[in-house]
Automatic annotation (TrEMBL):
It comes from Amorphotheca resinae ATCC 22711. InterPro entries: Galactose-bd-like_sf (IPR008979), PITH_dom (IPR010400), PITH_dom_sf (IPR037047), Thioredoxin-like_sf (IPR036249), Thioredoxin_CS (IPR017937), Thioredoxin_domain (IPR013766). Residues 129-324 form the PITH domain. Belongs to the thioredoxin family. The lineage of its organism: Eukaryota, Fungi, Dikarya, Ascomycota, Pezizomycotina. Signal peptide: none annotated. This is Thioredoxin domain-containing protein.
Amino acid sequence: MSKTVQISSAAQFSDLLKSSRVVVTDFYADWCGPCKVVAPIYEQLSASLSRPNQLTFSKVNADTQTEIVSQYGVTSLPTFIIFKQGQVVEKVGGDPRKLQEVVRKLAAEAEGGSNSSGFGESSNGGSWRAGDLPKGYGDVTDQVDVKGSSLLNADNEFGGVGVLFDGSKPSGLQKGKAAEGQAKDWVESDTDEQLMLFMPFNSILKVHTLQITSLPPASEDDEVPMRPKTIQLYSNRPHILGFEEAEDIPATQTITLSEKDWDSTGTATIPLRFVKFQNVSSLVLFVVDGDGQGDRVRVDRLRIIGETGDKREMGKLEKIGDEHGE
């Protein structure tokens, strides 16, 4: 279900600007070709970054909401206007890259918790990410095509693939009443400890770092799920791999995690061999085994850190570069 707010009156829009700290607004028209081109990107940003009362995405039909169009001086379509505390802070034309750059900056501010926009981990519904970003790189998790992603050997009693990219604070880090009654917002393997995740991207990425959060409860019970230990990454695959197929294909990189790699938030920050991940249209992440004697592995969140490049032609995954490097 779309999180984007469709504006039907000037009064509704005024109320939205008062109720949400940041509002990103798409001024469009049904007849506008460029508007239709940018619309899927806008919806993806909205789906991955919307935060109740903190960061809201809205759409204004320029043909039916002429009062709002006139009030904010919109003369071309599409136009994207960013409001903070009800005030215009930036206008962006129909350039998808510029739009994504501006919105990702807002999201990074939201996740950092130390900025003038007033976002923070303690805000209800606020976005969450563990650890600092490597200098010069940004969180590009919003570029994951969640609808096109798939997960093998996941227990369907827990969250689906979408929870891995959710920006909310994992329930495993919340205590007492804050965590009561919440859905199981993590992924666990099913028949054994292996998981296979396929992530296509909306743009060609340079992937610098992965952040994996795993929050199994403290217990010596063998039934308690484990954190991932051995992870294999495969770049630019056109589809998810089968488990037997993965055994026959050299991984782009193999990672072995130990207890010291997990910080106080249950997050492991994994620098990649950057030269191997320069032109990435998709990633397959294969959790080979877990760190312990159990039969299941748990993953709560996944973050991708890097840079975005050209927008990928949707529906077409190409093998780019050296995908089988050691």
